[in-house]
Structure formats: C-alpha cells, structure tokens
Design brief:
- The protein is built from twelve helices and eleven strands.
- It is of the alpha/beta class.
- It folds into two domains: 6-148 and 292-378, Rossmann fold (3-Layer(aba) Sandwich); 151-270, no CATH class.
- It has a nine-stranded mixed sheet with strand order 1-2-3-5-4-6-7-10-11, sandwiched between helices. A two-stranded antiparallel ribbon has the order 8-9.
- Strand 8 (191-192) and strand 9 form a beta hairpin.
- The chain is globular, with a radius of gyration of 21 Å.
- The chain starts with 5 loop residues before the first helix and ends in a 23-residue tail after the last helix.
C-alpha cells in the first residue's frame, strides 16, 4: 500500500457536522470514498460495499450504507468505497474496501470491531473478505447479497442452458444483438409464469428445483426476471466479461417432478454444460473468482428475499451447505423475507439484523434465523427473530 497522507485522505472535503462528528469525502489510490465518524464514536466501524452498477468507463459511484441513519443513532462510524471501476470485479472491489479500512485506521485509530456490510454484489465482496482476510473483520451483514460468489454465475448459465433445452432455441451460442431477438421468440414458445405453454410448464418445474424449491412468491419473482437473466456465452460489450468467463455448470444437478414426460437422468445427460476456459476459477491466480469454501472467520447474518431471481435464494442454501462441510455453520445466520424482488427490504429488517450482529460480536448472543434447508413454505414466517 502506498504511504497515506492527509492530502490523499482529505482530497475533497473534511468537515465536522453538528451532532454527526466528521464526514470526509475524498480519493485514495485512485478510488473515491466516504468516511463518517460520529462525535461520540464508540469504536464500532462498518465498511459498506455497494452493488453492481453495470459496465462502463470511469470509477464506480459512491453510496452511503442503507442503514446510515441507524448507524448514526448507534454512534457507529462507517466508510464506503466507490470502487476503482464499474463492472463485475469483486476482486478489485474487495481490495478497494480493505484499503479504505486501512485509511480509516490511519486517520482515526483501530476500531474495537469492524463489520463489512455488503448489498447485492457487495455481498460477494463481504463473504470473500470473511473467508480470505480473517483478521480484517469481526462480523458481516449481507442484504440480498451474492453469498455464494461465482455460484451466481453458474446459476444464471444453468438457467439459460435449461431454457435453451426446453425452447429449442440456440440461446447460449447466439451473440447480442441477435440474442435479444431470440428472447422474444422464447416467450412465444414458452409463455410466461402462470401462462405457460406445455414446454414452459416443463421448464418451470425444472427451475423450481434449480431455484431451491417451491419458494414463497416464486412465480412472481421469476416473472420479474424471466428473460433478463438469460445470458449468451459471449456477453457483448455492454455486459461483464468476467461474469461469462468464470461460469461453470458441470456440477449443477437438474431435477424434475414425475409426470412431465422426461426424467432427471435424461435431463442431466442432455442439457448443455458450461465449461470455463483454462485459468478461470483458479484459487492460486485469483481466489475471489474461485468457489467459496464456507470457511467463515466471523459471524455473518444474511437477509434475502425468497423470490429474488437476480441473486437466487438457492445461493443461500448452497452456501449453508458449504459452511456445514467446513465446520463453520455456527457462524452463519440466514433470514428470509417472503417477497419477490431484489433488495427491497424494509428498514427495520436491516436494522434488527445489524443490532443482532453487534450483540453477537460484543456479547456472544447468537442471533436466530431461518432453516434455509428445511421446508421452503415455512421460510420467513418468523417475522421477529429476537
């Protein structure tokens, strides 16, 4: 890391705000950032990692934590990185977030505890931090987060491969913009949720299993993202290259109920598999793009909508299995909200999760949550986890 100077740290603005302590907006090592330390800081620090902004030139945008006001009431400091770029680069964004944590320490001293709070793609950053940098954070909070890392890439391409199989359309090998025209034909052949053709009914049943079961509001959530999560192998200039490069569906196991004229074994034999190129998903070359291990280093609370098809709930189930295999499941609490959509949480859900995480860190009070591997119909029925 380059030497830290006050010129770098306070490049744009550093001003105390009455009742709110000091807010700093600056640039460090080519990355914009925000830092807020309350006047009566009690030693807690939240590093916020925001979500995907699309492709394009220039730096990423700055965003305050979604629980900013709650942190102010709790006298907790926070810092947020704008990231060095846009795009799907959780590896870069993790490095930028770690550099910002070091900058905060140089300015204000080492906090009593640090929490990484990730939203959407920021959840990928947060879990990578907890697995790969065990001394940096004492807890993590995810909302609608990509908890299973490259598992999101695998899922979207597994979805597209199933769509190709049942529709008979060459979805995977058709580049944009021709691909976008195919999605119109896809709807003509398959219908939409609650108004399927016969082929669409088969496809929907397979996606039910792929998504993690008959989740609450499943059809509503699927309808929102029905064609937008279809992806060709060549994403085109306006879509993330790394997203396509690191997908791998060889480990995906498809399933289908009886009565649809095809069995599970045939499905898994005939649906096309996505194989990444040599060097992709290498733990040695770039561990952030390797499959997560489940080896959490600190408590993590994840809140997620049951019918989120941009970041499917299935990723919550898959990561739970990873932590069980790694012997770290006691550090993971997951909470489901019975809802369709992505990142549409009420403030209280986030705030309660944060307070429970702090109690877990400071007093050892283990938070409660949902059994994401149990009966899907019961997810999110416990509105109060305290």
């Amino acid at each position: 890391m380059k030497p830290i100077t006050f010129l770098l740290a306070i490049l744009i603005l550093a001003a105390p705000i009455a009742g709110r302590g000091q807010s700093i907006r600056g640039s460090h090592e080519g990355v914009d950032y925000l830092i807020n330390r309350p006047a009566e800081w009690r030693g807690g620090l939240v590093l916020f990692a925001h979500g995907y902004e699309g492709e394009g030139a220039g730096r990423g945008s700055l965003a305050s934590p979604t629980i900013e006001r709650h942190l102010a009431r709790r006298n907790v400091a926070w810092a947020a990185s704008g990231y060095r770029s846009k795009g799907y680069r959780p590896d870069w964004f993790l490095a930028d977030t770690l550099a910002l944590r070091e900058l905060f320490i140089s300015l204000h001293g080492k906090p009593r505890w640090s929490v990484i709070h990730g939203q959407s793609l920021g959840g990928y950053v947060a879990v990578a931090a907890l697995e790969l940098h065990p001394d940096a954070f004492q807890g993590g909070l995810l909302e609608c987060g990509v908890i299973d890392g490259v598992g999101q890439l695998d899922w979207h391409y597994a979805y597209t491969a199933a769509a190709e199989y049942f529709s008979g359309l060459p979805l995977l090998e058709t580049p944009r913009p021709a691909f976008d025209k195919l999605t119109v034909e896809f709807i003509s052949r398959m219908g939409r949720p609650r108004n399927y053709t016969e082929s669409g009914e088969r496809f929907d049943n397979v996606i039910k299993h792929l998504a993690g079961g008959d989740l609450p509001y499943r059809l509503e959530g699927l309808n929102q993202r029905y064609t937008s999560i279809l992806n060709p192998r060549d994403p085109g200039p306006d879509y993330p290259r790394e997203y396509a490069r690191d997908a791998d569906t060889r480990q995906i196991e498809y399933d289908i109920d009886h009565g649809f004229g095809i069995d599970k074994a045939t499905l898994n034999r005939q649906i096309r598999r996505i194989i990444p190129p040599p060097g992709a998903r290498s733990r040695e070359a770039n561990p952030v793009f390797a499959p997560f291990t489940g080896k959490l280093s600190a408590p993590l609370i994840a809140v997620h909508e049951t019918a989120d098809f941009l970041v499917p709930f299935r990723l919550q189930q898959d990561y739970r299995r990873r932590t069980i295999e790694a012997g770290k499941s006691h550090l993971l609490v997951q909470r489901a909200q019975r809802k369709a959509g992505h990142c549409g949480f009420e403030g209280k859900i986030r705030e309660d999760a944060f307070d429970d995480l702090v109690a877990w860190i400071e007093r050892g009070t283990v938070a409660a949550g949902d059994d994401v591997l149990g009966n899907p119909s019961k997810l999110g029925l416990r509105r109060l986890w305290h």
